[in-house]
Every structure is written in C-alpha cells, then in structure tokens.
Amino acid sequence: MKQPTSVPSLPAPPEVRVRFGTATAKAERYAGWLAGPGVERGLLGPREVDRIWGRHLLNCAVLDQYLPRGSSVCDLGSGAGLPGLVLALLRPDCSMVLLEPLLRRATFLEEVVADLEISGVTVARARAEDYASQDRRHDAVVARAVAPLDRLVGWAMPLLRPGGVLLAQKGAAAFDELEAARPALDRWGVGERDVLVVAEGGSVTYIVRVARPLHPPRTQRPAEDE
Predict the structure, then answer these.
(1) I need a labelling partner for 70 at 20 to 30 A (CA). Which of 46, 114, 140, 141 fits?
(2) Which domains does the chain have, with CATH numbers?
C-alpha cells in the first residue's frame, strides 16, 4: 500500500509522555496522522488539531484500565482509530479489531497500522451486523461517538462473548442515555450496567459499561436487527 510521502510526528506534552511511556513515539506519529491526513480526508475537524492530545488521545486512554489482560477487543465504528488505535498502543497484550464500514476510513486505518507497525491489530471493513454474522466474538467492544446507546447495544451485543463487556464513551448525558436504553438492555437480559466517571488529565470521561449476560433471557430473544 502506498504511503503518504510525509506525515510528521506531533510532539507530545509531558503528561502524554508519562501516560504512554515506551509507546510515546508511536503516539506522536499517530497524532501526526490525525492532524495531517486525518483532517485532509475529513476524519477529524480542523479545529480539533489543537485538542488532539487532551480531547482525543488521553480521553481514549482511560479505557485501558477496564480491559483484562490478553483481551480480544473490537473497536466498533472505529473511524479515525479512536479509541481502538490508542488502546492498541497502550495494551499490546490485547488483540484489536478496528471495525469500520466506510472505505475511506478503513483505508486510513490500514495506512496508519502499517506505518506504525502495530502488531495484533486488524482492520475489518464491514457493518457490525455483517461482521457478527461471521460468528466472531470478543471479550470487549469499545465505541466512541458512534450512535445513541439503545442502538449501539443492538450492534454490540452480538459481537460479545457471554460475559463480555461494552465500554461506550459518552458525554455528561451518559446517565440519561443508560436510562433511555433500558428497553434494549432488558431485551438482552442485561443486568450488569453502570456509568463509570473517570477524572484524569484535567478532564472527566463518562463510560457506559454493559455486560452481556452469560445466558440469554428465557422468555425473550434479543432483537438482532436493532
């Protein structure tokens, strides 16, 4: 695959170097991709360039503490690789699938993965429903700014192994979204559901955590086509 001739790294502030440790150089390279080709191809808005580290990379990094060691993870609707590529840099012990249906975004992801030489990462160009039909299941599904929670649950649950968890990054309305998604969660027999509020790096991140039950509900089957 042909690579862009020049994608300069974006120097990381001190707090990022502490957070990413030995992966800092690759994080800086990834930030350069976001600030350059990512903006040029419409994956990231021009106004986001000055906020790449705090609003995007550090914001996504908080998810890594909720991934058990050696997890198989699917980044649903990966877009520009947030949060999947950030987690792949921080957690090389995990395997990561970047699931993205749009060609231009999938192409960007493939180029970044090849350039950064990140092992254990696969780019899958497919809709969630089609990917699930291949009987692929993961320990965790992560998602950021993909869809309202009730719709996201319908896409994510078929991608999870029994006992697996959906970690959805949301805004301050996360509690309201969780309540609004109650009917969708009940159809799946979900009991374990909560909102994690994480303060790190001067910002607050809201993560809706939903666990797929070990056994399907006895009286109702989930709606696969939500």
Answers:
(1) 114
(2) 69-211 (3.40.50.150)
